[in-house]
């Protein structure tokens, strides 16, 4: 299979950790194997958690690990000037308008606490759909009405077209937040289309996001996204098989770098984490193991 463009899409809400690096490397392998170029796409609309130093950390980490990419910003300045999601706001707002016109959403004013009280699962089960809250009311978010969602088809990299049922924890996802800004599931689809990404590589914890984004694409007739190919890789697990998180400082690349680790050391740590029998010390030996 040949592809034109894939992407690294880190969120600047923490320092990059080994799990992010692992995902970048798998993306790079697939890009090399399929002739795809790589775009560095940084999502910065989530302003609550955004910090400039996290954007800088993305550049520093890629530079330190000598992981190249073909398109996207190389510095914080360039990022702010040309690549920030703020520049694409009109695209997002236009899509939200279409979503409203097509009656794909309902308004919801539930707090996190209320959602937890309403159902012991903690999942939002669509309670507000029947309340018909005006969409323009303040302090309400817009949730996709996923009550009648059918099987969702996803073109996968290694398993052909797969059909999925939307899991409860991905239902009624938010496309416009209470602050009226577009939410991640919407901007991610629109950005990938904007840059003509046709191969999307992400951890399997984001399968739910893929399904949500396919619902957006279908609702808005965004055919190119529906035809894009997805690869959901297994996650790198921390000690005791725990999910790695950005809050665990010890796995951040920055922390390891400050400890004096070299890229070869970091590849070696990655190799141990994935249980590789041979020593991994650079991209080529990583690729040889995770290969095809
Ligand atoms: Zn609600």
Would you give an account of this structure?
This protein is an alpha/beta fold and 292 residues long. The chain has 11 helices and 9 strands. The chain has a 4-stranded mixed β-sheet with strand order 6-5-9-8. Strands 3-4-7 form a 3-stranded antiparallel β-sheet. The longest helix has 17 residues. The radius of gyration is 20 Å and the shape is globular. The mean pLDDT is 93. The protein binds zinc ion. Zinc ion (ZN) binds next to loops.
Order of strands side by side in the largest beta sheet?
6-5-9-8
Helix content: 25-40%
Question: Which ligands are bound?
Answer: zinc ion
Q: Count the strands?
A: 9
**Can you tell me the residue ranges where pLDDT is under 50 for at least 5 consecutive residues?**
none
Shape: globular
Radius of gyration computed on alpha carbons: 20 Å
Structural class: alpha/beta
**Helix and strand string, N-terminal first?**
EHEHHHEHEEEEHEHHEHHH
Instruction: Report mean pLDDT, rounded to a whole number.
Output: 93
**Contiguous helical run count:** 11
Gap from first CA to last CA: 12 Å
Strand residues, percent = 5-15%
The major beta sheet can be summarized as: 4 strands, mixed
Notable traits:
alpha/beta, three-stranded antiparallel beta sheet, 13% strand, binds zinc ion
Please specify the SSE layout and strand pairing.
Elements: E1 5-8, H1 18-34, E2 37-40, H2 52-64, H3 76-83, H4 89-101, E3 105-108, H5 112-118, E4 141-144, E5 152-156, E6 160-164, E7 174-176, H6 184-194, E8 199-203, H7 207-219, H8 223-226, E9 229-233, H9 253-258, H10 263-273, H11 283-290
Helix pairs in contact: 6-7
Bound molecules: zinc ion.
């Amino acid at each position: 299979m040949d592809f034109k463009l894939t992407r690294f899409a880190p969120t600047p809400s923490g320092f990059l950790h080994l799990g992010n690096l692992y995902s970048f490397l798998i993306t790079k392998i697939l890009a090399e194997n399929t002739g795809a170029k790589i775009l560095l796409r940084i999502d910065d609309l989530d302003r609550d958690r955004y910090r400039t130093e996290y954007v800088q950390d993305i550049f520093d980490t890629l530079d330190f690990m000598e992981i190249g990419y073909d398109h996207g910003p190389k510095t914080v300045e360039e990022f702010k000037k040309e690549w920030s999601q703020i520049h694409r706001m009109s695209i997002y707002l236009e899509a939200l308008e279409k979503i409203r016109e097509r009656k794909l959403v309902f308004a919801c004013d539930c707090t996190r606490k209320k959602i937890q009280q309403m159902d012991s699962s903690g999942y939002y089960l669509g309670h507000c759909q029947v309340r018909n809250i005006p969409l323009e009311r303040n302090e309400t978010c817009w949730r996709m009405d996923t009550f009648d969602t059918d099987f969702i088809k996803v073109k996968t990299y290694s398993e052909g077209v797969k059909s999925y049922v939307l899991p409860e924890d991905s239902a009624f996802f938010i496309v416009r937040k209470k602050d009226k800004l577009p939410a991640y599931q919407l901007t991610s689809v629109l950005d990938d289309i904007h840059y003509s990404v046709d191969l999307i590589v992400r951890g399997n914890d984001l399968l739910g996001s893929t399904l949500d984004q396919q619902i957006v694409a279908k609702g808005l007739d965004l055919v190119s996204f529906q035809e894009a190919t997805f690869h959901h890789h297994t996650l790198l697990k921390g000690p005791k098989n725990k999910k790695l998180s950005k809050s665990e400082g010890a796995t951040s690349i920055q922390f390891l770098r400050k400890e004096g680790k070299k890229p070869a050391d970091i590849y070696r740590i990655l190799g141990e984490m994935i249980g590789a029998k041979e020593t991994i010390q650079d991209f080529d030996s990583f690729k040889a193991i995770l290969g095809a």
